[in-house]
Amino acid sequence: MLKKYFQRVEKPAQKIENISQKVRTFPKRTNKDVVFGKNYNLKIDSIEHDKGNGVGRINDFVVFVVGGVTGDFLEVKITESNKNFAVASIVKIIEPSPHRVLPDCPVYKKCGGCSILQVGYSFQLKIKEEFLRETLSRIGGFDLQNLEILPIIPAENPLFYRNKIIQPVGFENGRLISGFYRQNTHEIVDFEKCFIQEAISNEVVNVVRDWGNRSKIQPYNERNDNGCLKNIFLRVSKTTNEFVVCLVTRTQKLSFWKTLVNELQQKFGEKFVGLVQNTNPEKGNVILSDNFYTLWGKDFIFEKLGEKKFKVSIASFFQVNSEQTINLYNLVKDFCSLDGTETVLDAFCGIGSIGIFACENARRLIGIEINEKAIKDAIFNAKLNSLRNAEFFVGDMDFTLPSVLRKNERINVVIVDPPRKGLSSKTILALTRQKPEKIVYISCNVVTLSRDLREFSHQGYKISKIVPVDMFPQTHHCETVCLLEIT
Ligand SMILES: C[S@@+](CC[C@H](N)C(=O)[O-])C[C@H]1O[C@@H](n2cnc3c(N)ncnc32)[C@H](O)[C@@H]1O
Predict the structure, then answer these.
(1) 167 CA distance to ligand 1 centroid (A)?
(2) pLDDT tens per residue, range 2-35
(3) Ligand 1: does its nearest atom lie under 6 Å from the Cβ of 396?
(4) What's the mean pLDDT in 426-441?
């Protein structure tokens, strides 16, 4: 049973500023010398953090080069020319950067799935550390001398790590294809093996694609808004290798799914635990609707993180890199350093995994999350891991948090792990009014993190420690954990 259920689920009232734009601020130059379709030679000075492109200049005019690596000398072709910047593709590598590596992936030049697979791993880590420092200074306004920023925690396995994939489906040369979009397009790059997905995921997608072709399943056609199969969505357990397949379709009608069940059972036996359908008739970029139907088996997997076991429903959020999640959560545990007397709030708790992993020692644990399915998982997971002191609330943070804070005792420690847009001012104010001794902020977006840290420091919090964790190797994304303490 849900402990409490808040019906009111609304978008946060505060308009979140589109600060990702600010990442691209360069001196203004005219583009008259940078002509669309023409080739130029240039040197790559850095890698930007919005999309992971190389940045070079032609007569001081900024050019973003897809696949460019700091130190490369390249011949490039201009594919887009705007007022303040141009975009280019690589024609020839005249002199490669010492940080450039040759990936095994045959489609890395085209596929938008990884942005920096061609960058050596140690340099990837440097880029992320540098981006964090630069953004804390530029957006957060912090003096870096006064911040303790610890070295990034690298991934032991920077390839084949993703436990969740969603691959769009399309049609090419009379065949159903599936892959990722080429950067900045809706053109699908078909592949048989993705180098950042769990190895079993590749095998599963190939079975689904073959079934789709043999069964003449109509791939969704974005342009005409017709056809059926839109995406292949998988969740895989790193520890047990069990997986659930979810087919995202435009229409409810889906033929021959029983054949697919048979084929997956034959090839993967008990590892294949469920086939789910998600119907989404809407056009646009939102992949999943709320309409999930379990066609066969279960709609969840179990994953183990250290000693703890978690039920993860296909519809719930879960960290995509299970191995690094253990490092991330251990850090959170360390930062919380509970002595058993504290009430802890796990805000944006998802399936409850952080709180359950890091706060078994809390006097009381309170979780808040907008996704009802995830909250049901959290309640289940607390029981599964014998946590008797946990309560979970479902609702939008902006509306649910004030009510939870009003009705409960003072919170001593807060863990916040918001989505990319970060926290609203309303949430920051509601939290800081409680004056918790510690706030542990986990973020997958350094830009909104820096903005929010500035707000917390205005509200009397000292940023005691900052640790980046590489949850997303081969991409430009970076996860960060911060410890904030009341002054
Ligand atoms: C980055 S995830 C963190 C989940 C969890 N802490 C974990 O480690 O797996 C952010 C979570 O916030 C939830 N969420 C998004 N918007 C929300 C809102 N307005 N109010 C409450 N929860 C929200 C999402 O459903 C998601 O589970």
Answers:
(1) 22
(2) 333 332 222 333 333 344 434 444 444 556 779 9
(3) yes
(4) 97
Q: How far is the CA of 10 from the centre of ligand 1 (A)?
A: 14
CATH says 164-305 is which class? mainly beta
CA distances from 421 to 142, 158, 191, 275, 466 (A): 20, 26, 31, 32, 19
Asked if the model's pLDDT at residue 174 lies above 70, the reply is: yes
By mean pLDDT, which of 72-81, 176-185, 316-325, 418-427 is the weakest? Answer: 176-185
> For 305-349, how does the pLDDT look when each residue is reduced to its tens digit (9 = 90+)?
999 999 999 999 999 999 999 999 999 999 999 999 999 999 999
Comma-separated ranges of CATH 2.40.50.140 domains in the chain: 31-100
Ligand 1 in reach of 353 Cβ (< 6 A): yes
Distance 77 CA to ligand 1 centre (A): 41
- Is the shortest distance between the CB of 319 and ligand 1 below 6 Å? yes
Q: What's the pLDDT score for residue 384?
A: 97
- Pocket of ligand 1 contains residue 48 by CB under 6 Å: no
For residue 228, give the nearest of 279, 275, 157, 262 by alpha carbon.
279
- Contact yes or no for 229/220 (Cβ under 8 A): yes
Confidence category of residue 408, pLDDT binned at 50, 70, 90: confident
Kindly state the percentage of the chain with pLDDT values over 90.
86
Q: Is 340 left (phi over 0), alpha (psi -120 to 50) or beta?
A: left
What CATH architecture applies to the domain 4-16+138-154+321-486? Answer: 3-Layer(aba) Sandwich (3.40)
- pTM equals 0.91
Instruction: Report the C-alpha gap between 237 and 246 in whole angstroms.
Output: 15
Question: CATH 3.40.50.150 in the chain, residues?
Answer: 4-16+138-154+321-486
Q: Contact 303/237 with Cβ under 8 angstroms?
A: yes
Residue 348 Cβ inside 6 Å of ligand 1? The answer reads yes
Does domain 31-100 fall under CATH 3.40.30.10? My reply is no
Ligand 1 atom with the smallest distance to the CA of 350 is 27
487 near 461, Cβ under 8 Å?
yes
Residues involved in catalysis: 444
Ligand 1 test: best mutation among 369, 426, 472, most atoms within 8 Å of CB? 369
| Pairwise CA distance, residues 67 & 118, whole Å | 7
